[in-house]
Amino acid sequence: MAARRFFTAVDRQGMYNYLDFEKPIADLEGKILELKTLSEGGEAVDVAEEIARLERRVKDALRDIYGKLTPWQKVQVARHVDRPHCVDYVKSLFTDFTPLAGDRAFGEDEAILGGFARFRGQSVAVIGQEKGSDTKTRLRHNFGSARPEGYRKAVRIMDLADRYGIPLIALVDTAGAYPGVGAEERGQAQAIAVSTAKCLSLKVPSLSIIIGEGGSGGAIAIAATNRVYMLEHAVYSVISPEGAASILWRDTTRSKDAATSMRITAQDLLDLKIIDGIVPEPVGGAQRSPDTVVTATGELIARTLAEFAQSNADFREQRREKFLAIGRSL
Asked: What is the pTM of this model?
């Protein structure tokens, strides 16, 4: 598979991971840091005007680069290690979060985080994929790629939500379900199918937000909801661009072509009526201002839950019609 490419540089907050196409920004911010260090070091040089000029250039460069990202560049942004993760949304948006562990059949899978919480006073069920933010947590969460027990835990949570009439919120961020031998031996395909079917059959309202990658059945297993939203630079696809290139052309270097052909960006999927809306990201992506994105996501959740509360719709039937309609108008 093609490697995710980025390089690390030092900025005012410490280490920042720049994507390969962000090199012009890295160069400018490096110069700004040098000037600020020179100024703070007591050098008798007035650099304030030059710093202000460079900061304006950084803003212009970010606006220019992020205003015309290619689908492959959006894939890189969606995978950025500094984007807010599921745990960040849970900590910021929900109170009294009580996680549930285990599938009551085999064991626990920390790739899927789930439980019950309160969102602005309202009881909700929360399910999300967590990739981890450093080597230790990535290994613990298996890079967000769930095994069968993870999806069976999700089904367990959905069953409880349905029993007690609690809305479901799903935060999707996975490259796909774990493809290992052990997972296949324990019924990975069946677990994904049952989780997807449970999503579709819920009587309670549900919404999902693709916060990074929405990869394959691993994503749809918790994203078959009444409303599906995506962050502006997230991606959602039946297979990764690298996997598609490997299958179609037997050449992973054509991942860029695959990303373009599959139409996996939020803007494409909104046009295709596969998703219901887009959460705007700050210029430079969610990784540059995580709090802004988390807050915007919270506002979207609040509006959607309010719409659900005022609706007399049959949510199961509404969900059924939503997914049956995909592709009919193309």
From this structure: 0.89
